[in-house]
C-alpha cells in the first residue's frame, strides 16, 4: 500500500569525516532523490531504502565518511493518510 501512494523512505547517516564529499557522491546514486547535509549527518530521501542501503553505505564510506549509525525511517499509516488526503489524522 505504501509503495502505491508514492511513499519514500528516509535514511539518516551519522558519522565523522567528509560529509560534504559523501553528500555529493550519494546524490549521483540511482534511487536517491534528495540529500540534506548537516555537520555530522546526512538525511537521504530514497525509494526502497532497504534495497539501497548497501550501496549507500559503501558510497558514503568511499567518499570519506566514517559512519557511526544508520537509520531507515519508513512511511507509517499516518503519512500514507496525509499523502492521500492532504490532511493529518487529527484535522
From TrEMBL:
Domain of life: Bacteria
Name of the protein described by the UniProt record: DUF4162 domain-containing protein
Organism annotation: Arthrobacter flavus
Lineage of origin: Bacteria, Bacillati, Actinomycetota, Actinomycetes, Micrococcales
Amino acid at each position: 500500500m505504501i509503495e502505491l501512494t508514492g511513499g519514500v523512505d528516509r535514511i539518516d547517516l551519522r558519522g565523522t569525516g567528509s560529509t560534504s564529499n559523501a553528500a555529493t557522491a550519494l546524490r549521483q546514486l540511482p534511487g536517491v532523490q534528495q540529500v540534506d547535509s548537516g555537520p555530522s549527518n546526512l538525511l537521504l530521501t530514497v525509494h526502497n531504502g532497504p534495497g539501497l542501503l548497501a550501496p549507500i553505505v559503501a558510497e558514503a564510506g568511499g567518499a570519506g565518511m566514517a559512519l557511526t549509525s544508520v537509520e531507515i525511517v519508513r512511511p507509517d499509516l499516518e503519512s500514507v493518510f496525509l499523502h492521500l488526503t492532504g490532511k493529518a489524522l487529527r484535522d
